[in-house]
């Protein structure tokens, strides 16, 4: 851990200040500010194109920042500060940081040429250098947690979308991450499969896992999240507890969005 | 009510016509004494022919190995973000795909006329040593260089299309797990690209087997040239061409069978999907039993 940032960040899993991001000439993030405390669940809501997924992807450096400050677990993500400037890190250093940040994608992105078990133990064995037998044991524990022990030797293609996403969550957890990022984890699922994935996520939240969830599932946000953030046009428009955001909406834009979705 | 399927009279007529034609062709081949089948049989296992066959196999394997390695390197260069690497790779591809292989072979064969002495070293800088082109660029080296470098150009396109066929989400997922770049390539991207790379590579290999016959122009004693050497002496041109063709056919048949099994191996994640889909999934053990808190 770096000690050159003795900010109150000690208690924060994520600290973002003035994060900006361009795709070509299009500015998708226009100064995003956000803090997430350890052990808390933060949901990011917003219309498509609001920059919420891009912002999430910045948190493990899948997207580069163009300006601003983004710290995860007390470390700048993908950059090193020196003389008031941020220098991009080497790929190997970024890889080391990413190992501590779990990510779950909208389209699962399981490795299709590997079985469920191989998917889960790949990174622990080859990145963390954990003994294979130990990794398999841990993987089986995680599979029982997501209710899929019977599918350990199945290939991802034989699984339903919901099952694939649960495997993807187990795969991310196998690295024992300090923070879990979820990028619209249920958006590619048939409606009847959404529940099983949300159940797994509920279980994680109950265990105290720090999570940042980009989602359209307002019910989940209301019930599970400690903090709800509404983004639009590349900025955080409104944030607060679920009660504040859903029942005492302050901004007109958030009101309009929630009115349409609810 | 009984159902009478449509009768395909046309099919029967065409089948009969083709069978007749084929039978006629076969009888003419067997009965025409000028095919000289006894001569074919006599030379089929001739030691000169078998030596040529061995050389053809060796050339095919070696040139293909050069081609696959070179092709992979060039493909990686082309997708790299380094513009110089990309430009060099494109230039190589442009030159070697843009000129006939026959020309390239003769060119390599005559390289010593262009560079009698080849020096390794830095431009305008110290030399690391030099060697005499005439001694080292033998027929053999010229053949391997010509076939291998040409194949590398084609293989690089095959490898590149394979790499491009892997969805970008795969790389992202692997990187998000903290896997370093080389491991993402060797464990995640390449194995998936294989399914796209293998079938055309099999075609290239079979093509290479026959393309090696081109090196007969630089007097390399492979299968065809061995046959030619014999028929320039005994004038049994057709029988000896048949001998060579029989061996080419045997080899391509063996390779096709090998290709079939290789494709099956790399498509196994698909195959199991079908098998499990047909057999029905055992859902009963799945349904999130431990998650009863919801």
Automatic annotation (TrEMBL), chain A:
Cited InterPro entries: AAA+_ATPase, ABC_ATPase_HisP-typ, ABC_transporter-like_ATP-bd, ABC_transporter-like_CS, MetN_ABC_transporter-like, P-loop_NTPase
Membrane topology listed for this record: Peripheral membrane protein
Keyword Nucleotide-binding set for record: yes
PROSITE patterns according to UniProt: ABC_TRANSPORTER_1 (PS00211), ABC_TRANSPORTER_2 (PS50893)
Localization (cell): Cell membrane
Main location (coarse class): membrane
Domain ABC transporter: from-to ranges: 14-258
Keywords on record: Amino-acid transport, ATP-binding, Cell membrane, Membrane, Nucleotide-binding, Transport
Gene3D superfamilies the UniProt entry points to: P-loop containing nucleotide triphosphate hydrolases (3.40.50.300)
UniProt-listed SUPFAM superfamilies: P-loop containing nucleoside triphosphate hydrolases
Top-level taxonomic group: Bacteria
CDD domains given in the database record: ABC_HisP_GlnQ (cd03262)
Record GO terms (molecular function): ATP binding
Family: Belongs to the ABC transporter superfamily.
Stored PANTHER family: AMINO ACID IMPORT ATP-BINDING PROTEIN (PTHR43166), GLUTAMATE_ASPARTATE IMPORT ATP-BINDING PROTEIN GLTL (PTHR43166:SF9)
Protein name: Amino acid ABC transporter ATP-binding protein
From TrEMBL, chain B:
Keyword terms, alphabetized: Amino-acid transport, Cell membrane, Membrane, Transmembrane, Transmembrane helix, Transport
Keyword Transmembrane helix in annotation: yes
Region (Disordered): 271-294
PROSITE patterns (UniProt xref): ABC_TM1
UniProt topology in membrane: Multi-pass membrane protein
Keyword Ribosomal protein: no
UniProt cross-references to Gene3D superfamilies, sorted A to Z: MetI-like
Domain ABC transmembrane type-1, chain residue ranges per copy: 53-259
CDD domains registered for this protein in UniProt: TM_PBP2 (cd06261)
InterPro entries: AA_ABC_transptr_permease_3TM, ArtM/GltK/GlnP/TcyL/YhdX-like, MetI-like, MetI-like_sf
Subcellular location: Cell inner membrane; Cell membrane
Family named by the database record: Belongs to the binding-protein-dependent transport system permease family. HisMQ subfamily.
Protein name according to UniProt: Amino acid ABC transporter permease
């Amino acid at each position: 851990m770096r000690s050159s940032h003795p900010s109150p960040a000690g208690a924060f899993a994520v600290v973002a200040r003035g994060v900006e991001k361009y795709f070509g000439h299009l500015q998708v993030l226009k100064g995003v500010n956000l803090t997430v405390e350890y052990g808390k669940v933060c949901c990011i809501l917003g219309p498509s194109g609001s920059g919420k997924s891009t912002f999430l992807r910045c948190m493990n450096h899948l997207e580069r920042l163009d300006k601003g400050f983004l710290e995860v677990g007390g470390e700048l993500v993908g950059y090193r500060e020196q003389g008031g400037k941020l220098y991009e890190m080497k790929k190997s250093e970024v890889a080391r940081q990413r190992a501590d940040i779990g990510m779950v994608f909208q389209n699962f992105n399981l490795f299709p040429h590997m079985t469920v078990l191989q998917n889960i133990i790949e990174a622990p064995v080859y990145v963390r250098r954990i003994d294979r037998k130990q990794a398999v044991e841990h993987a089986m524990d995680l599979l029982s947690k997501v209710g899929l022990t019977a599918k350990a030797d199945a290939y991802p293609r034989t699984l339903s979308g919901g099952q694939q996403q649960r495997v993807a969550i187990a795969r991310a957890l196998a690295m024992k991450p300090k923070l879990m990022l979820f990028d619209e984890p249920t958006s590619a699922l048939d409606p009847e499969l959404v529940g099983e994935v949300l159940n797994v996520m509920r279980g994680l939240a109950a265990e105290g896992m720090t999570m940042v969830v980009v989602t359209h599932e307002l019910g989940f946000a209301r019930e599970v999240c400690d903090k709800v953030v509404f983004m639009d046009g590349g900025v955080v428009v409104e944030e607060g507890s679920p009660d504040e955001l859903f029942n005492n909406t302050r901004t007109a834009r958030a009101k309009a969005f929630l009115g349409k979705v609810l | 009510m009984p159902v009478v399927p449509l009768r395909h009279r046309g099919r029967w007529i065409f089948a009969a016509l083709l069978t007749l034609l084929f039978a006629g062709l076969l009888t003419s081949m067997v009965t025409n004494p000028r095919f000289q089948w006894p001569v074919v049989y006599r030379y089929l296992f001739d030691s000169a022919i078998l030596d040529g066959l061995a050389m053809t196999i060796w050339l095919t394997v070696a040139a293909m190995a050069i081609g696959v390695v070179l092709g992979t390197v060039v493909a990686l260069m082309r997708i790299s973000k380094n513009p110089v690497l990309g430009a060099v790779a494109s230039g190589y591809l442009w030159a070697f795909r843009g000129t006939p292989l026959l020309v390239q072979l003769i060119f390599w064969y005559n390289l010593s006329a262009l560079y009698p002495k080849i020096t390794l070293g830095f431009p305008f800088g110290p030399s690391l040593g030099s060697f005499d082109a005439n001694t080292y660029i033998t027929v053999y080296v010229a053949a391997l260089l010509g076939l291998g470098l040409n194949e590398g150009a084609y293989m690089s396109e095959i490898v590149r299309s394979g790499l491009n066929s892997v969805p970008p989400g795969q790389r992202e997922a692997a990187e998000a797990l903290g896997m370093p770049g080389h491991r993402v390539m060797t464990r995640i991207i390449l194995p998936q690209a294989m399914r796209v790379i293998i079938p055309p590579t099999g075609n290239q290999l079979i093509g290479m087997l026959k393309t090696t016959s081109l090196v007969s122009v630089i007097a390399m004693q492979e299968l065809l040239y061995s046959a030619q050497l014999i028929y320039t002496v005994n004038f049994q041109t057709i029988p000896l061409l048949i001998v060579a063709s029989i061996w080419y056919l045997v080899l391509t048949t063996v390779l096709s069978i090998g290709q079939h099994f290789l494709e099956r191996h790399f498509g196994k994640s698909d195959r199991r999907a079908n098998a499990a889909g047909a057999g029905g999934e055992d859902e009963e053990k799945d349904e999130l039993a431990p998650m009863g808190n919801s």
